[in-house]
Amino acid sequence: MKNSKLLVLSFLFISFLTCAKEGSIGLSADVSVSGLFSHKLEEFKISAIKPDSAAQESGLKVGDIVTAIEGCAIPGCPPDEAKKLMDRESGEILTLTVNRGEVLGIPIEIHVK
Questions:
Q1: What's the farthest any 2 CA atoms get from each other in the chain?
Q2: Which CATH architecture has domain 2-111?
Q3: Which one of 14, 26, 77, 79 counts the least CB within 10 Å of its CB?
Q4: Pick from 52, 45, 37: nearest CA to 67
Q5: Considering the entire predicted model, what is its pTM?
């Protein structure tokens, strides 16, 4: 199970770095996944934001905890669904909900470049 979890985590990390088809979001995240056959995101924490990126312009910050991707709640969102939801083209908008310290449920709109 540990190898399966590591494989999924590696896949997700790479996927979130390059998730836009033609556009760019400019973030990377540390993710936790549970489940052997039915994977679910348990945590999605922003670990880096590329300078001058769509993520930086949206106000997203390192340390933000993503609690929803386009309404798909974390914990609970399947990783493959999260990847599909984040896969945006240039000009599209990606909506995340984040917790930042004591402030909960901050809506973030990322205008994909």
A1: 39
A2: Roll (2.30)
A3: 14
A4: 45
A5: 0.81
